[in-house]
């Protein structure tokens, strides 16, 4: 079945690969089961989504893999039409482990290659799933370019081996990129970063664009359903920003949809998450119709609060001051 829902034009990465302008996130947080997320992926394929943002740590790649296999078998979509990402988790950066992690994701996703494989976080710092925000692992370490490159060399080998088509980084800063980009044999084709109207990261965004690195925006709606451990008193809500609410009224859509439109028009690739068909269909359709005006784009730009929601404090090492140490 071919969906008749139109979506915005695909983008071309520096390595020549096409990537859709919007994708679907698959992190069920503490709220949605792997089955619910996999069912949403099945519905999203039917709706016309072609980009899916997966990760081993989301704990649902096996069920999502079954959905992909069924969609291929039914002729709903061809492998070459999908763009599937996955990510190596923090406990798999060591020598030989990146290949093992990739092999496990390939097996679970039931794919012969992954389109884009990310280093999920630039630290080998592991925390137990579901731990509270103040937990510290005594083995956690600060960022080191040398340690990171040990992981990245293994990522590069995955490209050489044809197991992944492209590689990317996630949760980086300009300072960390300055330290590692000159050392990369294969540069990241994309970088995943938190991007929404309350956290626009203009400097990092421009840094990536000027180097032909595609920004992919996670939490594009401000992640209203993120785990409690990632919530801090005073965090702003992207969907309640006056410029977003005003545009939502003008376009007669939910404020979440305005966040997705803003992201696509600005140039990042948003990967909104939802298990609800009406929501994920709106998030796809809105990329091809009724664009925001220049004045609306500018009003949202001016509303940036520069507040990071996903602070990552569970990755802190002993002796670190607070979560800002993770972000230089
Ligand atoms: N690389 C990384 O470190 C990293 C970190 C975080 C996330 N991610 C990726 O980014 C994806 C998205 O981030 P996220 O899931 O945290 O946050 P998000 O996409 O900003 O927010 C998701 C929530 O927004 C609401 N929503 C979505 N579409 C809507 C619509 N059309 N109308 C109304 N509400 C809507 C839903 O809430 P309700 O369920 O209440 O309707 C949904 O649970 C993740 O799934 C994951 O793939 C990557």
Describe the fold and architecture.
By secondary structure, this protein is α/β, with parallel strands linked by helices. It has helices at residues 34-47, 61-73, 97-109, 145-160, 174-180, 202-210, 242-251, 255-266, 277-285, 294-302, and strands spanning 11-12, 18-19, 24-25, 51-53, 83-88, 114-119, 164-170, 190-194, 214-218, 269-270. It has a single domain (11-321), classed as NADP-dependent oxidoreductase domain (TIM Barrel), CATH 3.20.20. Helix content is 34%, strand content 12%. The strands form 2 sheets. Strands 3-4-5-6-7-8-9-10 form an 8-stranded parallel β-sheet. Strands 1-2 form a two-stranded antiparallel sheet. α1 (34-47) runs parallel beside α2. The longest helix is centred in the middle third of the chain and has 16 residues, at 145-160. The termini are far apart. It binds NADP nicotinamide-adenine-dinucleotide phosphate. NADP nicotinamide-adenine-dinucleotide phosphate (NAP) binds at residues 25-27, 53, 120, 170-171, 192, 218-226, 254, 256-257, 271-274, 276, 279, 282-283, 310.
